[in-house]
């Protein structure tokens, strides 16, 4: 049977090759001229690679900035209810979600582009705005999926060191803008430092710099701020500025495995980005149903934020007791300097079934620890005390 299947596959392949030579010869030049495509950037897999290398029986998975409290009961019920119609393409659900977002943010549906997480939208922007060797300016360190992807397609990456208090240096970033700048990328709150820049200063930055180049504001962690609505740069977009604001359901909503994100931008920008993305076609009906049901579910979001902050305060107390400092966090993770080699530290923590991320910052070894459930934070504390 196996040989028969193999023969049939070989016959089909041979027939295709024979019949397709004319087609190939007529299109090979076009194909060669197209930009090279890869499934992901090398850095995009960093957290995944760390997770895959971890033991299966982790007591504490604190390595990927996930929401360990998971999606709401409302979202879970919506997923189950959506299964009966999962044979249908979810066009109406996507439209319904876009309508909800538009109404809440005070924009039009034509300002919104959905996709399976914010990652493909970051990649679309990288492809669009750094093609032809254009540069993207970022903080250093900052979330580097977009600029790394840009480099894969011959874009240039201009890194600007953080300020002394580990925040994005907006003045220095603006000073780097030149004729070859395709985009400025701002992750706020910043990953991996969990710091946030002054809102008024960032608004003024967007107003000035967007007149020179595209400004991309990644607000993946904005829901962890005390007042997201007054901290977002969507107001700058509504004022007519040339910016892109990215959001994700992967954090406070607990959708990291469900995959859903979106950008809000000027209509002409959305039209352009659609050429470099799936335009939301790869989002499942179950995910969209969950998002429609859970979007701006105030009680759930408030409770999840409360539990996150309680775990964060517990972590702060553990670090202080062990004689460690840390960067005050405006997100669901914390960076703190460690007193040994970073790789050794992470290896020793993994041996104790605790997954974390090690980092190099200004020549110093650091740990980035995601905020987990209280039992996970207690597991971290027990392991940390053994090796600190």
UniProtKB/TrEMBL annotation:
The UniProt record lists the keyword Transferase: yes
A Pfam entry, by short name: Aminotran_1_2
Keywords recorded for this protein, A-Z: Aminotransferase, Pyridoxal phosphate, Transferase
Limits of the Aminotransferase class I/classII large domain: 62-383
Lyase recorded as keyword: no
One GO molecular-function entry: transaminase activity
Family: Belongs to the class-II pyridoxal-phosphate-dependent aminotransferase family. Histidinol-phosphate aminotransferase subfamily.
Protein name listed in UniProt: Histidinol-phosphate aminotransferase family protein
Origin species: Mucilaginibacter rigui
Top-level taxonomy: Bacteria, Pseudomonadati, Bacteroidota, Sphingobacteriia, Sphingobacteriales
